[in-house]
């Protein structure tokens, strides 16, 4: 997409209340949010962390996948490109689980289980997408691994600049997103707040000096 692309979330699932249903409890919205996160493919954790509860009130619940931060969600859902096995993960898998949860709530008059903000654990992937490897190679980063922060920043940069990204553009958006910056152990990302453990200023400076 062009430089004028705006941040957006698409693939939004929404339900609206009618006179036949009592008000939606917040626990139902959190249950559906957790279902959506759990049903989203897991690799680095970026796609799950960008599964958002957009609207939650007595009359409307809306959940969406932020394709500015995770632009590959669209082709995973459509089964386009080299990864086919997740085709329909939203329209078939997540949607089907939504229907079951909503039906149970309407029938039993309560939400099954106790639900809160979903927690996503980020990890390092050994399977960057072809386009991601090309960008990592172009800016001089290792191409065999990618973490959640790198994947999100590459998605953002691709939405703004397409594939014409230089190292300066990527570093301005990432603060030099190298593997070493974030370590090898899983990092917890809270989907609602986008909290994550970050490198120290000394680590960042070392990465800049080394050119990694």
Question: What do these coordinates show?
Answer:
The chain has 212 residues and is α+β, with helices and mostly antiparallel strands. It folds into 2 domains: 9-118; 122-199, no CATH class. It has helices spanning 26-39, 46-49, 73-78, 89-108, 130-138, 148-161, 167-174, 179-182, 201-210; strands at residues 9-16, 51-56, 60-66, 119-122, 124-125, 146-147, 187-190. Strands 1-3-2 form a 3-stranded antiparallel β-sheet. A two-stranded antiparallel ribbon has the order 4-7. Strands 5-6 form a two-stranded antiparallel ribbon. A hairpin with a 3-residue loop joins strand 2 (51-56) and strand 3 (60-66). The longest helix has 20 residues, at 89-108. It is elongated and about 55 Å long. It starts with 8 loop residues before the first strand and ends with a helix. Mean pLDDT is 75; it is low at 1-9 and 173-212.
Query: What's the number of extended β-strand segments?
Result: 7
General shape? elongated
Main sheet characteristics: 3 strands, antiparallel
Give the percentage of residues in beta strands: 15-25%
Instruction: Briefly note the structural class of the backbone.
Output: alpha+beta
> Helical proportion?
40-55%
Low-confidence stretches: 1-9, 173-212
Please report the distance between the alpha carbons of the first and last residues.
28 Å
Q: What's the helix count?
A: 9
